[in-house]
Amino acid sequence: KQWYQRRVRGMPALSPTMEAGTILSWSVSEGDELGEGDLLAQIETDKATMDFEAPEVGFLAKILIPAGTPDVKLGTAVCIIVENKEDIAKFADYVASAATVTRAVF
């Protein structure tokens, strides 16, 4: 089994009272290169629509929660970012498990 660097990103807390959010739109597509601070998605919280930014450089390997999905709980895995472009294909058929959700990085 090959080792590769990846980060499962969870639904972030974008306001102090946020418990869940709706991803209104993804601003990037699977396979896109990301810079730290690049806009990943627009998320509707309990108070406003907020930007969800890339916390690191890498490549968006997989979107796990499609745009328009309502009431995505905090910490739920929403996407996977990989360090190397060559690793994107490894996530083509990836499906998040409950274990992945509990380990999601915010």
Report, as a whole number of angstroms, the end-to-end distance: 27 Å
Please indicate the percent range of residues in DSSP E strands (runs of 2 or more): 35-45%
Number of helices: 1
What's the total count of β strands?
8
What is the CA-atom radius of gyration, in angstroms? 13 Å
Could you spell the SSE succession in H and E letters?
A: EEEEEEEEH
Low-confidence stretches: none
Structural class: mainly beta
As a percent range, the share of helical residues equals: under 10%
Mean pLDDT reading: 86
* Biggest beta-sheet profile: 4 strands, antiparallel
**Widest sheet: strand ordering:** 1-8-6-3
Q: How would the global form be characterised? A: globular
Describe this structure in words.
The chain is mostly beta strands. The chain has a 4-stranded antiparallel beta sheet. It has a 4-stranded antiparallel beta sheet with strand order 5-4-2-7, with no helix packed on it. Strand 4 and strand 5 form a beta hairpin. The longest helix has 5 residues. It is globular. The chain starts with 5 loop residues before the first strand and ends with a helix. The mean pLDDT is 86.
